[in-house]
Design goal:
Pfam families: CHAD (PF05235), CYTH (PF01928). This is Inorganic triphosphatase. InterPro entries: CHAD_dom, CHAD_dom_sf, CYTH-like_dom_sf, CYTH_domain, YgiF. The protein has 534 residues and is of the alpha+beta class. Helices cover 52% and strands 17% of the residues. The chain has 18 helices and 9 strands. The protein has an 8-stranded antiparallel β-barrel. The chain is globular.
Length: 534
């Protein structure tokens, strides 16, 4: 591929309903900004990968698209950290089969790795009816040219399986990327749209893998010593959003409890980041961010609580009684009754989760935070000592923030052996904030001592987490029939068995828990200036 064929693709995708396309086309956001007639075409693209899906594992795309009488081969890199941009290399080929000999650019070759055409096989095909409308936002130097594509079609596998796709794709041709968010926010006022973070390639591979999305943990964040405080804020917030949205599909399916768990972890990480950098964020922006995070976390919380109760608290007790070879049969029946009531409660909680994720408020939150980061919204404040630090290297701030979080956790755990449950819960929260700060900044330090510190902290956190789960179970059992329904015979007895079982377990592990606390306190700091101040 020639150097001239390299470009950066910068786009934002919005999932839509086909019946809303006409409404969107005539909305002021589009109709008042058009720069020419709309064009329509059919796009048929075949996506290739190896049998072991090594390209998909790195989020690299290789496709061949039929365009009129010809074919175009495209290589795309994984999305940039902002989720909007990615590298793209294109060239003409003679057929629907890829021709790797035409790829000469070093970056594209590195993406593909050591593979030959014999290693490749067609994985899926997309057939899309696309209508394109070019629009211009703004004027003068701030003007942005955006290609709005209304895509409707299907993803098809060689074995006949398929899934629909319907989306509005906003591709930046020139101007500031923030304009994509501006246009998207306007379009959501004309019709119900949802931010779609997955590419067609990612959805096609998910279908080929059985259609079941997998829960994903947060990817390791990479900062370097030259990264400014402002740059760190942007990268951390984007990473938290990407982590949350990556688990959206599996959460909506509701079959893997890890999905909603990871979405909540992402939200906690995001809230912790916002609190960590609070001195640099204007008060009104901070309050909006925290308010929306609390709303969404509150919507996801009950589902996670009932998942934990069913899998980690009730299930072990039921299993133990079921394995008792006939002993305690009445207790088994009571526990099964309680399990059925808890499952009904869990299913209702997931209905609330789906309602929240599919709501206009959720989409507005994602687009609002994305726009805030892209526009560096925190700059909208008077010049002050804190605002000036936004442009200084984050390495000068990281030591101070880590030390501050560590001291708060140490104070919260003072006299740990004698702390009541409520104060231990506060310690748990302080440790979470400390751990997230460590994970945000870990790439700035030598990895070995950081890893040792995290491992020691994680062991103690896990033990504290179990204590919290047991305390939460008591609350959940009191809420089991807060909708006015009546408990079935035997439910109260089963609830008492579960609570008693785990209360005994907590008492048995108290000495080990105290020892874990002291092990953590004795762990050596990995940051370079424990007593540094900003």
């Amino acid at each position: 591929m020639a150097e001239a064929d390299i470009n950066r693709e910068t786009e934002l995708k919005l999932a839509a309903k086909p019946e809303d396309f006409d409404t969107l086309r005539v909305s002021p956001a589009i109709a008042d900004r058009t720069t020419g007639p709309a064009t329509a075409k059919t796009l048929e693209s075949t996506y290739y990968d190896t049998e072991d899906r090594r390209l998909a594992a790195r989020k690299v795309t290789l496709r061949v698209r039929k365009t009129g009488d010809g074919f175009v081969q495209t290589v795309k890199s994984a999305p940039d950290e902002d989720g909007l941009g990615r590298g793209e290399w294109e060239c003409a080929v003679t057929s629907a089969a890829p021709d790797l000999t035409l790829i000469t650019d070093a970056a594209a070759l590195e993406l593909l790795g050591a593979l030959g055409e014999s290693d490749l096989q067609p994985v899926f095909t997309t057939v899309v009816e696309r209508t394109i409308q070019d629009v211009t936002l703004g004027e003068g130097d701030d003007a942005a040219s955006i290609e709005v594509a209304f895509d409707r079609g299907r993803i098809r596998l060689p074995d006949g399986r398929s899934s629909d796709l319907c989306e509005v794709e906003l591709e930046l041709k020139s101007g500031p990327p923030a304009a994509l968010y501006d246009l998207a926010q306007e379009l959501t006022k004309a019709a119900p749209l949802r931010l779609e973070m997955r590419s067609k390639a990612e959805r096609g591979h998910a279908l080929a893998n059985g259609g079941a999305d997998k829960a994903l943990k947060a990817e390791k964040l990479l900062l370097d010593p030259e990264t400014t405080v402002e740059g760190a804020v942007a990268r951390i917030v984007r990473a938290c959003l990407a982590h949350m949205v990556a688990n959206e599909a599996v959460t909506l399916a509701g079959e893997d409890p890890e999905g909603v768990h990871q979405m909540r972890v992402a939200l906690r990480r995001l809230r912790s980041a916002i609190a960590l950098f609070r001195p640099f964020i204007p008060a009104t922006q901070y309050l909006w961010l925290v308010g929306e995070i609390k709303w969404l976390a509150g919507s996801l919380g009950p589902a996670r609580d009932w998942d934990v109760f069913g899998e980690e608290l009730l299930a072990p007790v039921r299993d133990a009684f079921h394995k008792a070879d006939g002993h305690g049969r009445s207790a088994v029946e009571d526990l099964d009754t309680l399990a059925a009531a808890a499952e009904a409660k869990r299913l209702r909680a997931y209905e609330g989760v789906r309602e929240a994720i599919r709501s206009d408020r959720y989409t507005a939150f994602l687009l609002g935070v994305g726009s805030w980061v892209e526009k560096r919204g925190w700059r909208d404040q008077p010049v002050s000592e804190d605002s000036v630090r936004l442009f200084q290297p984050v390495i000068g701030l990281a030591d101070h923030l880590l030390n501050k979080r560590h001291k708060k956790a140490k104070r919260a755990g003072h006299g740990f052996a004698h702390l009541p449950v409520a104060q231990r819960h506060q310690l748990r929260i302080a440790l979470k904030k400390l751990r997230y700060a460590v994970e945000f900044f870990r790439s700035l330090y030598d990895d070995k001592p950081v890893r040792r510190y995290i491992q020691q902290m994680a062991a103690f956190q896990d033990a504290l987490g179990h204590l919290n789960d047991v305390a939460t179970a008591t609350r959940l059992l009191h809420e089991l029939h807060d909708d006015g329904s009546r408990s079935a015979p035997g439910e109260p007895r089963a609830a008492g068995i579960v609570i008693g079982w785990h209360a005994r377990g907590v008492a048995d592990t108290e000495a080990a828990l105290v020892a874990l606390w002291h092990d953590f306190i004795d762990t050596k700091h990995f940051w370079s200036k424990p007593d540094a101040a900003v």
